[in-house]
Specification:
By secondary structure, this protein is an alpha/beta fold. It contains 11 helices and 12 strands.
Length: 357
């Protein structure tokens, strides 16, 4: 609990987190926020991601975890603001500000209402707390050393074994209601698939653990547009088995990024046009390098945007590690946001302008 004197009351308190899943550190912050104001807005990050070992719970499920951890009288004081991962600090900050302003208006609060932002300063992952100078920062000491990754490792590492016994080791780290939620979650059909992907990623990272330096992987991707359609593949292997992605893969030793992009495009979709055509249709090449963009680890990709114009859709077929390839109407993409691998929806958004700026 905080060591500073109680702060004066404010109109609204704010807590930002991923809550994947809720643990006692989160709960301490939430209780502090509820003690500062009659209303508390909880900003839930990574809100529209596909289910993965890093993001196993939907934002609605995380909101329910937060409610269940509180007394009945406090649950009605919570207001939830889901925010997507933009992998762009400026856009993310703007989305949080706009969402909070809208909630203030809906609650009848004036634009100049006093807002307290609750959080604890731990490392670079909490730098966002300094991005809202118009809100009063209420720092709180960290409760223990628990983090969501440890809880997820216990949850998925117990697959095929006694889940109850594994979760029993977390009784001092998470609220009882969260542990009950995790037990129920482990009985759902997709739990086994997520656990298998967790094991695949774990083995992948272990294979690189003996490298003299933390590895940085370099990949390529291709966003290919024809008229009102864009070319997507469906992943045939973990990570992201069954999810949609733009065609791409790892760069080869003796290839440029552009050459690797064309090779991966042909291998995964069968699309093969004349080199002069592809060069004429290349509209942009952008590096996507957010540290958290890939579950594999630090992965930097060079994304190439090809606009082939208005023409008949070329025939495509899934190949290599793609289970399928298809031309998808661009107007459908926003409805598919929670079906994409890593930051591939963001990649499409960057080139095609899918979400409001």
């Amino acid at each position: 609990m905080p060591q500073h004197p109680p702060s004066p009351a404010c109109d609204l308190s704010l807590l930002i987190g991923r809550f994947q899943p809720l643990h006692n550190g989160h709960l301490a912050l939430l209780q502090q926020a509820l003690g500062l104001a009659p209303r508390c807005v909880v900003v839930i990050g990574s809100a529209f991601q596909a289910r993965t070992p890093r993001n196993p719970f939907t934002w609605q499920e995380r909101a329910q975890m937060l409610r269940l951890a509180l007394p009945e009288a406090d649950r009605g004081r919570l207001h939830f603001l889901p925010v997507r991962d933009y992998y762009d600090d400026t856009r993310w900050i703007g989305a949080v500000r706009a969402g909070v302003a809208q909630l203030q208006a809906e609650q009848g609060l004036p634009a100049h209402a006093t807002v307290a932002l609750v959080g604890h300063l731990k490392d670079a992952t909490s730098d966002y707390l300094g991005c809202f100078p118009s809100w009063r920062l209420e720092p709180v000491q960290r409760v223990g050393r628990v983090d969501g990754r440890h809880l997820r490792d216990v949850l998925f590492g117990s697959a095929g074994h006694a889940v109850d016994a594994s979760l029993a080791t977390l009784v001092e780290l998470a609220p009882p209601s969260t542990l009950d939620f995790l037990r129920a979650f482990a009985a759902l059909p997709f739990y086994a698939e997520l656990a298998e992907e967790w094991r695949t990623l774990k083995h992948y990272k272990e294979a690189w653990a003996s490298a003299p330096y933390p590895p940085v992987f370099v990949t390529v991707d291709s966003v290919v547009r024809v008229g009102s359609h864009v070319l997507l593949v469906k992943r045939g292997q973990a990570p992201g088995k069954g999810l949609y992605a733009v065609p791409g893969g790892f760069i080869e030793q003796r290839e440029t990024a552009y050459q690797s992009a064309l090779r991966e495009l042909k291998e995964e979709t069968g699309l093969s046009l004349l080199d002069v055509t592809m060069r004429q249709c290349l509209k942009a090449a952008v590096v996507f390098d957010h540290p958290d963009r890939s579950q594999r680890g630090r992965t930097i990709t060079h994304a190439h945007y090809f606009d082939l114009g208005e023409r008949e859709l070329p025939e495509v077929q899934g190949g290599d590690d793609a289970a399928g390839a298809e031309w998808v109407p661009i107007e459908r993409l926003t409805q598919m946001e929670d079906c994409f691998l890593d930051d591939h929806f963001h990649m499409l958004d960057h080139f095609l302008g899918l979400t409001p700026r």
